[in-house]
Specification:
Chain lengths: ~120, ~110
Amino acid sequence: AQSVTQPDIHITVSEGASLELRCNYSYGATPYLFWYVQSPGQGLQLLLKYFSGDTLVQGIKGFEAEFKRSQSSFNLRKPSVHWSDAAEYFCAVGPLSGSARQLTFGSGTQLTVLP
Amino acid sequence: GAGVSQSPSNKVTEKGKDVELRCDPISGHTALYWYRQSLGQGLEFLIYFQGNSAPDKSGLPSDRFSAERTGGSVSTLTIQRTQQEDSAVYLCASSRTGSNTEAFFGQGTRLTVV
């Protein structure tokens, strides 16, 4: 069965500092990979996704993620964090084929940004 | 509509009562998903609808949970005889097809069972 691990429950960074959120997945083949962000009281917004091709993916709000097959990782990065980035971040995987289409989510990483 | 709409946004119910949660997907989206987000947990898949196909109910936690999708659009998630452990945020998402195109999420319904 597929699974997603986000090892950091909570991360605190100062505004302007760089950010990396970790995501490791377990899957039999290369899955679809996603990062979502959830602000308090809001639904999830897609930041970026990886299906195939270039392993460095650019997303919205200045975020990027790199797919590393050898490490089964899809870490999210941002070179300079803004106070508005404070939110919860979820990594998710989805199947490339088959009847199942639902995403499997990690347990999330809560990001706090210090002024 | 412009986005996925869920109602109500908040629901407080007494243990043992039935509740219905509604989801209006984005117009034209054929795929619809329900997820549950419990405090401190990730999102747990509940059920998936794709067009006129039989729904994938593999994530429903018990037979107290059911969902339907009428006319390929609006979906209702029903929880019968609610228990305190059902307290969570229930999120609905829709996508243009079921082939892992971007899923758009609603703001969720926060269910509290007292």
